[in-house]
Write a structure and sequence with these properties.
Shape: globular
Largest sheet: 4 strands, parallel
Length: 315
């Protein structure tokens, strides 16, 4: 990444203005570029056919190891609105914007739009030495999966809308009307999760995987235990971590062990085989599979899948 980034910055500096002008001449539509799927989904629903919306992180691509290519740099440079998450996972964005941000109409950092929560390390979670060092420092590491709370999603959807309206005032009324329809769906989704929480017999979720659902769990007062934190690079748990998860499932009589979409089910399957629990998949939506993308799945439709999977574990 250190070798690649200077090249990308040069591409942006030398070609950013020209690329943007060329794009505008092609179709006259506003260009919106989003790094992650939830923001892409909100933007395309808000835009309808009035803007061209691009997802930078292609379907199925691992978000945590994403490195932008020169083509990505040109795509960003051509944007009227560039929507990115921010945080440690997208430090490359800040360096790009520092060098050539003037070529982009509006750059919107979504982590600035909501209250970010500190990354949590809970009982049984595997932590490496460098993460212990981070805990001892004054620097705060924030959980970046802010969209997993439907309440946050409403705020984020409206932020995307206002950025688009600022760049394309003539279509602002249509954008805001589409945004309100989207937010009505998100509010209904939030209501479904609250109803499930009221009915729930349990309040503990076990993730034999990374845990990208901190905002979701805090929104609905759910407890959790997990193998790794949300942005961990780990894929293999220690024996101590694995034993902790197995013991916790048995002690609490947990019926479903969770893993996240596009992740290996290996750890969850080991826990399930040892305890008799089922394996459930929850969609974190940092990225989505090619099949789901081509099928037109949305934030709401994937969260509806999560609702049904959580119902199996909580009721």
């Amino acid at each position: 990444m250190k070798r690649l980034l200077p090249t990308l910055l040069c591409v942006l500096l030398l070609t950013g203005c020209a690329a943007r002008a060329e794009h505008t001449a092609d179709d006259g539509k506003m260009s919106v570029v989003c790094t992650l799927f939830p923001y892409y989904d909100f933007a395309r629903q808000i835009a309808g056919d009035r803007a061209e919306v691009t997802l930078l992180l292609s379907p199925g691509r691992e978000a945590h190891s994403f490195e932008p290519t020169p083509r990505d740099a040109l795509t960003i440079a051509s944007a009227d609105v560039f929507v990115y998450n921010g945080g440690e996972g997208e430090l490359w964005v800040e360096e790009m914007l520092d060098s050539s941000g003037e070529n982009i109409g509006t750059a919107l950092c979504m982590m600035d739009c909501v209250d970010a929560h500190e990354e949590e390390i809970v009982e049984g979670m595997q932590v490496h030495e460098h993460e212990h060092e981070h805990e001892d420092s004054d620097e705060i590491e924030y959980d970046e999966h802010i969209w997993t709370s439907p309440q946050n999603a409403i705020v984020l959807c409206r932020a995307v809308c206002e950025a688009m309206c600022a760049q394309d005032e003539k279509n602002a009324e249509a954008y805001r009307a589409n945004c309100e329809r989207c937010c009505t769906e998100l509010a209904a989704l939030d209501g479904e999760f609250r109803a499930l929480r009221e009915e729930a017999k349990r309040d503990l979720l076990i993730f034999a995987d990374r845990f990208p659902f901190l905002y979701f769990c805090e929104e609905y007062d759910l407890h959790y235990r997990a193998a790794f934190h949300g942005c961990s690079t780990d894929t293999e748990p220690s024996l101590a971590t694995l034993k902790f998860l197995i013991d916790k499932v048995e002690q609490e009589n947990i019926p479903v062990v969770y893993t996240v979409d596009l992740s290996s089910r290996k750890i969850a399957e080991v826990v399930a085989e040892s305890t008799g629990a089922e394996v459930g998949v929850l969609y974190s939506m940092q990225t989505v599979s090619r099949a789901d993308f081509e099928a037109g799945e949305t934030y709401v439709s994937l969260m509806e899948r999560n609702l049904e999977t959580l119902r199996e574990g909580l009721l």
